[in-house]
Design goal:
Helices cover 48% and strands 23% of the residues. By secondary structure, it is an alpha/beta fold. Strands 1, 2, 3, 4, 5 and 6 form a six-stranded mixed beta sheet that branches.
Length: 154
Amino acid sequence: MEIHDLITTKSVVAALRVTSKKQALQELAKRAAQITGIDERQIFDVLLEREKLGTTGVGQGIAIPHGKLAPLTRLYGLFARLDRPIDFEAIDEQPVDLIFLLLAPESAGADHLKALARVSRLLRDKATTTKLRGCDSADGLYALLTEARASNAA
């Protein structure tokens, strides 16, 4: 599972304008609904339920909200660079400005975990996150996300 299997240029947002964690999840759910064809409220509810188990704000300004939805037939990703960092109740208590949403079918099992691990490894790379924070176009962000993984694999 590579990053380019999860996202397209249409699932990358260069400057998402939100002021809270809830609003970020709502906006991401709305955009994910357009990509997946799944009801926006259903996506939002799954994300909210997951956050109740513990924050997906993993630290260093990064959040990886995720959830499983029965109607999905494959994994979907959505990346957003926020126009301003927000409180995401992250484990290091730092505000979040990079969010990678991951949605998986309920039957995904190991594929869901592999995709989470792949995204996490990518976003733990300081050079990659520095470039992502300095880029202001969806196409540029997409290129950074997909080529960073390819170069790490080589």
